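User: Can you predict the 3D structure for this chain?
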Amino acid sequence: MILVTYKESILTAIDRVSKIVKSNPRAVDILQCVQLETYGNEVYMVATSPMASARVLISDAKVGEPGKAIINLDRLKDRVSKAADSMRIETDQKMMKIVSSSDQKLGLVLNDAREYPEIEWSITEESYGLVKSEFINLLQTSHSITSSTTALTPAFLQVQIADQVLWVANGVTYQKFPIHCNPELTSTIPTATLASLASFIKESEGDTVWLSQQSEDSVVVTVGQDQYQAVPLAIGFPDLGTIFDRTKVLTPHELNVSRSELLAELSKAKTSVDSFGKVTLTLSEGAKTRISIQAKADNGDWFESAIVGIWSGGHSRELTFNLESLVKFIQSFKTDRIQMHIGDDSKGDVSPIYCVEGDRVGILNQFKV
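Assistant: Here is the predicted structure, written as structure tokens:
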């Protein structure tokens, strides 16, 4: 392989894939490497881990002779950092030579290409492009919702794309977001990769995100010339459709409240008590209801405030939630007026709240004492 490129271009690519490489165990030498490969007249840097893989275009690189090479990331970064602004990279079966001036030449021993995992990259489905900023917001919201998920609910350590819906859950809240992708696309993405995927998309050139089916439950995310794929978990994602259908039927009463006003008071509560304490919303009788907000921490600290809303239940009601869960739930909606559909408690169970915003739907369970 022979290519001509610039120091800044190589270092930018290294920086973008370094998080994937650094997530690998240091004892596995081959996973501390990246792959440089040519594809037509373009040069890519590839990194992989048990969780995800990324393929980044090295901008401004020109191919003199096609090929690929496997090289330790840290050593490559060190040698490129010492080179002049422009360089010529040549590789054979065993060595990489970096020539950046008539006075400076650097040599690096390559790793065995046969040991590096084979990674397949799908062709994008051009008819189902997503707006980059909207998809990033969707990933960030999903990450916020699932950040408290633990190994006690392993099936929720992932999100699912199916039937043009992104399904997200953490055992306390269940949410579905409409997503404009191929109706046949089915994929799961581990929650541990959501933040890095959002960051990867943000750093990539281009305003459109393409989703392509890679295997039975895996998707390749393409932005510009860059690609990312997460490794699905070896566990199925629950069918949440029945939960949404049942909850919709069992929540006939409606509480209409200002999202911004409610968030403002809940934010004050968070700074006054433990974020993981509980908060109780007490609804007074009547259509124009006074919503009393009471938050209490485990150590006894408390906060109390009130706002006004519209309540169709016709009777007073108490709703108790985990404070942090309620804040994240309300933040995930965007309209200023939020409609909470609530049912009657029965058989020792407390009703969740069911919120609708266009095709976007969310369920939040109450705090059980």
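The chain has a mean pLDDT of 91. Residues 7-22 form the longest helix (16 residues).
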